[in-house]
Design brief:
2 domains, 5-stranded antiparallel beta sheet, 3-stranded antiparallel beta sheet, 2 helices, 18 strands, elongated
Length: 238
């Protein structure tokens, strides 16, 4: 296989990876707290021996779009949305994770948990517990929890210490190397932040990527036909 084919194949591999992420985005257009993902294409230049250098397109880095999603009113006491830069922190079997999905509910023990059973953490990294037998629970803009007018805890709001360490895990969870308080973030009770995926934009992007991939496949086919004709010509001359 010649250099041209190798360069085209690296591009095709990147386009396939982008198509997978676009499809994943579309599948999560209705997932509360979901963040759109894309790929970052980078140029890789290599030189083999005395041959001229070869420039290839690599698409290994994933980019998380942190644009604020639309807010939907639910009226739920433990439905929470964050405005501004910030995340809730939850405890998972793999360690603490950040999330923007704020649909919580108290467990039988009173701990505030996600639909998957992950405990919501306070500013100190301890599970948030809602006292039993209270008539009214209010959650302030800073995350302070008041039960029947008495402050009983505070939901932690965090940011990644290094924004580049933010990595999307399964669903709406993110892993980071370290998290720090998010002073500018605010909590809105009775609201849910929707996915920030724009389905029209994603479908348009899917069509664009598909056409680019098909063009690459057509180019590879023409290169294959050209090589075959050269072999046939040399065979007749031998």
């Amino acid at each position: 296989m010649d250099t041209t084919a190798y360069v085209t194949l690296t591009r095709q591999s990147g386009l396939m990876r982008e198509m997978e992420l676009v499809a994943h985005n579309i599948a999560n257009v209705s997932t509360a707290g979901f963040r759109r993902e894309g790929v970052v294409f980078a140029e890789h230049v290599a030189q083999a021996g005395t041959a001229p250098s070869v420039s290839m397109a690599l698409a290994k880095a994933r980019l998380v779009d942190m644009t604020q999603g639309a807010l939907s009113a639910t009226g739920g006491t433990f439905d929470l949305a964050i405005t501004g830069e910030g995340f809730f922190q939850v405890a998972t079997p793999d360690g603490p994770r950040l999330t923007r999905a704020g649909s919580f509910t108290p467990s039988a023990e009173g701990a505030l948990v996600t639909p998957d059973g992950h405990a919501v953490l306070d500013a100190g990294g301890a599970p948030v517990v809602i006292p039993g037998g209270v008539a009214q629970v209010r959650i302030g803009a800073d995350g302070t929890i008041s039960a029947d007018g008495q402050a009983v805890g505070r939901i932690g709001l965090f940011l990644p210490d290094d924004p580049l360490s933010l990595r999307q895990q399964a669903g709406t969870l993110f892993s980071v190397d370290a998290a720090v308080p998010a002073p500018a973030a605010t909590v809105m009770q009775g609201m849910i932040e929707e996915s920030n995926v724009d389905p029209i934009t994603e479908v348009a992007r899917m069509i664009e990527v598909q056409r680019a991939y098909e063009a690459g496949q057509s180019f590879l086919q023409r290169e294959d036909d050209r090589a075959l004709r050269v072999i046939e010509t040399l065979g007749r001359q031998a």
